[in-house]
């Protein structure tokens, strides 16, 4: 390609010289045979032109016009070669790089870099093309990760739905067959069925929210909410729920600070439920809820004294489908959706969510909701 374009450039530049020269020669021939008459140049003969110079014999200078014409043509040919070389380096080299890059991209190869980086328009074009290639490569990698995560999600959801369903079916069949007659055992069966049903409802809710986010059909219906009342009601409900749990204490530190925020009460409750449910899987003795305020944010804290999260895992816990190594060892393994959904819900409110943790000491989640500054 490069040689082909170079020859075309040389031909084009040479034509700029040869064509006018041929035209001049053709006109001179026409004038010679009186086909065209130009009064000023009538009967002009180049051999009759005399050039004089001090100390030079006129006979010795007869070849000077022909020499000058030869030098002129040699200079023109040299100029054509130089210009073609300059244009070749300026135009053909980046075009060759772009053509090579396009061929590799077409073949599915994206792990390369365009070398042409000069500070000109073609250099800018090559740089933009290289950036486009990098974005395409990143997009393909993200798509591969996404597809892998989707398959893992299907497998995880299938497992998480089947396990409690199997338990529910087993306990219900036991009750239907009359195998169990002791009232305490029956109540225990019903408690297990209730707990498993809540687990299923939680999983389905996470999956439904995730699907809404993926399809961009997710909405946040905000309204002015008194936080001390909303959190107070939620906290009292959780305290009653944990009264039957002898292993874990649910603690609410008073006071719950006052503040009226424009939020979606249901979605914030969904975030709290996700974080507290997650903490319940790994805490040792307590889950603690408390608040604080500053000039810009209303902050909600959820603390536990559980197994903690390693420094390696902390940057990734809000990623979809991510599960910490210690969580994988637990029988309470989840889908990896809950915390990612929490982050999306809080950011939809213009807020932020943070986490600090130490292995074998515990974890603190901080939810910062922006105050209405109007």
Structural features, described:
- With 374 residues, the chain is α+β, with helices and mostly antiparallel strands.
- The chain has three domains: 2-51 and 60-109, no CATH class; 147-214, Helix Hairpins; 223-370, Histidine kinase-like ATPase, C-terminal domain (Heat Shock Protein 90, 2-Layer Sandwich), CATH 3.30.565.
- The protein is built from eight helices and seven strands; from the N terminus they run ααααβαββαββααββ.
- A five-stranded mixed β-sheet has the order 2-4-5-7-6. The protein has a two-stranded antiparallel ribbon with strand order 1-3.
- Strand 6 (352-358) and strand 7 form a beta hairpin.
- It starts with a helix and ends with a strand.
Topology:
Elements: H1 2-32, H2 64-106, H3 121-176, H4 183-214, E1 223-226, H5 227-242, E2 249-252, E3 260-263, H6 265-282, E4 286-293, E5 297-304, H7 325-328, H8 338-348, E6 352-358, E7 362-370
Parallel strand pairs: 2-4
Antiparallel strand pairs: 1-3, 4-5, 5-7, 6-7
């Amino acid at each position: 390609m490069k040689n082909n374009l170079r020859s075309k450039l040389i031909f084009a530049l040479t034509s700029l010289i040869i064509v006018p020269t041929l035209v001049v020669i053709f006109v001179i021939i026409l004038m010679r045979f009186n086909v065209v008459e130009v009064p000023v140049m009538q009967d002009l003969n180049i051999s009759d032109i005399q050039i004089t110079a001090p100390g030079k014999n006129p006979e010795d200078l007869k070849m000077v016009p022909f020499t000058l014409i030869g030098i002129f043509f040699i200079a023109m040919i040299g100029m054509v070669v130089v210009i073609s070389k300059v244009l070749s380096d300026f135009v053909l080299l980046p075009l060759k790089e772009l053509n090579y890059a396009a061929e590799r991209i077409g073949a599915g190869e994206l792990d390369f870099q365009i070398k042409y980086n000069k500070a000109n328009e073609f250099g800018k074009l090559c740089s933009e093309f290289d950036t486009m290639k990098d974005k395409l490569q990143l997009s393909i990698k993200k798509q591969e990760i996404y597809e892998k995560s989707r398959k893992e999600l299907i497998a995880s959801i299938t497992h998480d739905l089947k396990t409690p369903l199997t338990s529910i079916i087993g306990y219900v069949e036991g009750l239907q067959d009359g195998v169990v007659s002791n009232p305490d055992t029956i109540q225990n069966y019903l408690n297990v069925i209730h707990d498993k049903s809540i687990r299923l409802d939680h999983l389905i809710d996470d999956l439904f929210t995730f699907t809404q986010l993926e399809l961009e059909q997710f909405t946040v219906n905000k309204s002015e909410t008194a936080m001390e009342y909303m959190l107070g009601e939620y906290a009292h409900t959780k305290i009653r729920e944990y009264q039957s749990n002898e292993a874990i204490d649910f603690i609410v530190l008073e006071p719950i600070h006052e503040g009226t925020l424009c939020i979606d009460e249901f979605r914030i409750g969904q975030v709290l439920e996700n974080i507290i449910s997650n903490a319940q899987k790994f805490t040792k003795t307590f889950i603690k809820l408390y608040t604080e305020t500053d000039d810009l944010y209303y902050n909600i804290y959820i603390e536990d004294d559980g197994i903690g999260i390693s420094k390696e895992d902390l940057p990734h816990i809000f990623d979809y489908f991510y599960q910490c190594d210690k969580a994988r060892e637990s029988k309470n393994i989840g889908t990896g959706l809950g915390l990612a959904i929490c982050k999306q819900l809080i950011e939809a409110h213009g807020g932020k969510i943070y986490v600090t943790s130490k292995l074998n000491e515990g974890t603190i989640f901080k939810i910062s909701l922006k105050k209405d500054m109007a």
